[in-house]
Write a structure and sequence with these properties.
The complex is a heterodimer of chains A (about 220) and B (about 325). By secondary structure, chain A is of the alpha/beta class. Helices cover about 40% and strands about 20% of the residues of chain A. The radius of gyration of chain A is 17 Å and the shape is globular. Chain B is an alpha/beta fold and about 325 residues long. Chain B folds into two domains: about 240 residues, 3-Layer(aba) Sandwich (Rossmann fold), CATH 3.40.50; about 70 residues, no CATH class. In chain B, about 30% of the residues lie in helices and about 20% in strands. In chain B, a hairpin with a 2-residue loop joins strand 4 and strand 5. The radius of gyration of chain B is 20 Å and the shape is globular. Classes of the chains: A alpha/beta (about 220), B alpha/beta (about 325). Chains A and B meet through helix 6, helix 7 and helix 8 of A and helix 7 and helix 10 of B.
Chain lengths: ~220, ~325
């Protein structure tokens, strides 16, 4: 289970962005979190992905409370979660070729030897052709770059996926293609999903249950 | 049929010349009209050449671009006009740009009032501080920008208000043609609806609007006609009601794009769009198309609203083509 218990978080303790949020994702479940822009849902997604330390409350990952966030998160917990962000341009190191972008988590966790083979597999999964793997972010479209970011998120076979507006910048066909990749991955691994967004139609179609922001937090 | 077009684009092509003799065919042989009181939505996947087309119409292409064809705005050809003409008589005065990202378009250290007053001073004959202030407030009201927010800086505005601020700027010069480049990217659905409804209001006031977008729901809400672009070519240009409703799109790509929506079958078009630097000789969509045959090795001519050797349905009923704009506001 991925559990958020009474999470209060933000960037200024006196004015938290998220107050008293409760949310549970069970293994294999796809949960959508629906809210308008600026409501704090991305902050909550960052907490769930262990990228932002809450001011109060706790995150419990498969029964173990999370003690450290960001670089202080233990590797075992950090690598159990894959994250995809809204804007691929801001989530990709512009100096890296797509192949290196996808391989980064593998290299960082001592899987350098098998990285090349795994990158080919992942590229195939997300629909990137081999010639694209040799390019840098400025040489590919937003849709192609987001495919690479999704491949990177799947590279360590996470048990949990957090998608923060993964498709907000993308056209309809690329959106459908990436959602299908996530769903195929979940079907084969049983991973759970927290998908945060503002598109009700998309989340209803994609997720097992979709929660409005008001149902999750105290405002 | 429709009133005389304000903008008439014929066989517009844009090529980028890259080092090493490489060439990118960003736009190929695009032809379309936009009439006053009409909105044409140009839709397609990211990287298909939509924004390059918009830049070409404003004379904002980089130096390594080569254009061919015509884009007549009245008696002026936008493609061959010199920079002096474009700067002094076209941008802001005859063509207003509603940009993609208001946050990036506005100057962060200046207030909205200062932006609007500067634009009023540059584009209209209004002289004197008091008159300029009044004109700026009228311009704000035209775009429904609240006057009590005029003294705020761009970062103090919500996405929707920032969008209204740039729309106000685009309207100041009284340009009959508005060009909106992805005006709804990154906005949530309610805000998308509000933004396109406001743009539609300006169309109903008599502006011609060319809206470039990958958001099909926004296009459906605002457009009278839809042009679908694939790999730099317009592959279908048709009436919006026929496109989104019945009988539906005729080009297999348009159909695939529409079917990918979560409210429809949510199935992606297989494969990836081709590289604009190495397009095939024939139909660029053929490798992804389930209707492709040997005939697709030749470039399909644009006929009967579609450029395809195997269009899906018969041409739309002619009665659709003569609807008034009001009919599309379902």
């Amino acid at each position: 289970m991925l559990e958020l218990r009474a999470v209060t978080a933000g960037y200024d303790r006196r004015a938290p962005v998220v107050r008293d949020a409760h949310l549970t994702v069970t293994p294999g479940e796809a949960v959508g979190l629906l809210g308008p822009s600026g409501c704090g849902k991305s902050t909550l997604a960052r907490v769930a992905a262990l990228l932002h330390r809450p001011d109060a409350g706790e995150v419990v990952l498969d029964g173990t409370p999370v003690r450290g966030f960001r670089h202080r998160a233990p590797r075992e917990q950090r690598t159990a979660i894959g994250v995809v962000f809204q804007q691929p341009r801001l989530a990709a190191d512009p100096r890296l070729r797509l192949a290196d972008l996808i391989a980064e988590p593998l290299r960082a966790t001592g899987r350098r030897a098998s990285a090349a083979e795994r990158v080919r597999e992942l590229a195939d999964t997300v629909g990137l052709t081999p010639d694209l793997l040799g390019r840098r972010p400025h040489e590919v479209s937003d849709g192609q770059l987001q495919r690479a970011c999704l491949a990177r998120a799947l590279s360590l076979e996470p048990r949990w996926l957090v998608c923060d507006e993964m498709t907000a910048m993308l056209d309809a066909s690329t959106t459908a293609a990436l959602v299908r990749v996530v769903e195929d991955y979940r079907a084969s691994t049983g991973a759970g999903l927290l998908s945060v967004g503002h598109d009700r139609t998309l989340l209803n179609r994609w997720c097992d249950r979709t929660l409005p922001w008001e149902a999750v937090t105290a405002g | 049929m429709t009133p005389a077009p304000l903008l008439a684009v014929r066989d517009l092509s844009v090529r980028f010349l890259l080092p090493g003799g490489r060439r990118v065919d960003a736009v190929s042989d695009a032809s379309f009209d936009v009439a006053p009181g009409e909105c044409l939505a140009l839709v397609g996947e990211s990287g298909c050449g939509k924004s390059v087309l918009a830049s070409a119409l404003l004379g904002l292409l980089p130096a390594n671009a080569r254009t061919a064809g015509h884009a007549h705005l009245g008696d002026l050809d936008l493609l061959t006009a010199d920079e002096r003409t474009l700067a002094r008589t076209v941008r802001g005065r005859r063509v207003g740009l509603v940009p993609q990202s208001p946050a990036a378009h506005l100057t962060p250290v200046r207030t909205i009032r200062s932006h609007i007053e500067e634009t009023v001073a540059r584009l209209t004959g209004v002289r004197g501080r008091a008159a300029r202030r009044k004109a700026a407030e009228q311009a704000s009201l035209r775009a429904e920008f609240p006057l009590d927010h005029l003294d705020r800086h761009p970062h103090e505005l919500s996405g929707g208000l920032a969008q209204r601020a740039v729309t106000a700027l685009a309207l100041i010069g009284g340009a009959p043609l508005l060009l909106a480049d992805e005006p709804t990217t990154g906005l949530d659905r309610d805000l998308v609806d509000r933004t396109v409804d406001e743009l539609r209001r300006h169309v109903d006031d008599g502006h011609a609007l060319l809206m470039i977008t990958h958001d099909l729901a926004a296009a459906e809400r605002i457009a009278d006609r839809v042009a679908v672009m694939y790999a730099g070519r317009i592959v279908e240009l048709t009436d919006a009601a026929a496109f989104f409703g019945s009988p539906g799109p005729r080009h297999p790509y348009s159909r695939g794009l529409l079917e990918a929506l979560p409210e429809r079958s949510f199935t992606p078009v297989p494969g990836l769009p081709p590289e604009l630097g190495s397009l095939p000789d024939g139909c660029a969509f053929a490798p992804r198309c389930d209707r492709a045959t040997d005939a697709c090795g030749a470039l399909p001519p644009f006929a009967d609203s579609v450029a395809c050797h195997h269009p899906v349905t018969a041409p739309a009923d002619a009665s659709h083509a003569t609807r008034t704009p009001e009919d599309t506001r379902a």
